[in-house]
Amino acid sequence: MPSHPSERRTFHFDGGCAPNPGPMHAAVVSRGVAWFRDDQGYGDNNQAEWLALLMAMELADAQACTDILLVGDSALVIAQASGRQKCRSPHLAPYLARFHQAAAGFARVGLRHVPRTKNLAGIALARRGLF
Prior knowledge:
Enzyme class: hydrolase
Order of helices and strands: EEEEHEHHEH
Number of helices: 4
Largest sheet: 6 strands, mixed
Distance between the termini: 32 Å
Structural class: alpha/beta
CATH class: Alpha Beta
CATH architecture: 2-Layer Sandwich
CATH superfamily: Ribonuclease H-like superfamily/Ribonuclease H
Number of strands: 6
GO molecular function: nucleic acid binding; RNA-DNA hybrid ribonuclease activity
Shape: globular
Helix content: 25-40%
Number of domains: 1
Radius of gyration: 14 Å
Protein name: Ribonuclease HI
InterPro entries: RNaseH-like_sf, RNaseH_domain, RNaseH_sf
Keywords: Hydrolase
């Protein structure tokens, strides 16, 4: 059943690479549907997590969502995106800037950190045998 775009929609996101650094992969899960992006270039785990968060926002925008909750297991990405921690890594700053630009297109953006065992996107990546 389709939802009204103004209802809060939850998107679980996860990214990773093996080895670290290495080829990056991303996954997003929302309402029982999983999306994957393989071979997101070469980078580290933090870059892969940022790419997954941005992927979640792209999917939310494509579905005309206006109120989103982004759920991930990267404490660093959640802390930086929420403004609780400064981004001191020059290679991550462009991701944070892209996040702020994308967030401006939504009425409401929430962020929540969960353990890896509770991250549906992380579970989806693990089931694919990527991590």
